[in-house]
Amino acid sequence: MEGKIQELHIADMDCHLYLPPGYEEGGDRYPVIYVNGEVPIEGILTKLVECGAQTEFLLLSIKPNSWNDDFTPWAAPAFRAGEEAPRGRADMYLSCLTEKIKPYMDTHYRTKPKPAHTALLGYSLGGLTAVYAIYKTDVFGVIASLSGSLWFDGFCEFMEREKPIRTDLRIYLSLGKKESRSKNPRMSRVAECTQRAKEILAGQVCFEWNEGGHFYDIEGRFAKALMYLRIGT
Predict the structure, then answer these.
(1) Single pTM value for the model
(2) Which of 69, 108, 111, 220 has the smallest count of CB within 10 Å of its CB?
């Protein structure tokens, strides 16, 4: 993989930042992809290069303080026996992202700050928060939810009541074909809820099926989303 990956600490959040080849020598500005949660950046970029795709963007992955708390929009029962119930702090996380992390990136790096060049991606609960963001902020013009936990209690009903802040969004949803086989009755509704989200967002959304279950080929699923969205081309 060409380019460079840096470790950063922004607004009390641990992050990893990918800079494309030539960034440090040039003067161009770049779109920015923000990712909810730590992701295998090197593997994703390797797959993109293998497919001949461009990687002319900055990519910042953000480690949450608590995956279940930061990536849930409101409190809900525990997902599994023995776990703590999620406390629903996505609003706080998104405020940190839009009011502290993004301004830091736009100040310290050569970014294209407008929504058309600012993407938010996430996997699982991180994908849920990516979709939730469209109802809470207008700074992102590109959204991708990969195997997003759209089964989360009351989320489809929330989407039916509310409207996205922006009307010019590009939204990508994907799901594994085996994900609805979950033994967890809440999580087994994921295909039904993703289909409902697709219908609600009709005209703004692309949906793509992937092979396998929830944890199958995560790097490949990110690469497919980025190739479809063509960020940085």
Answers:
(1) 0.96
(2) 108
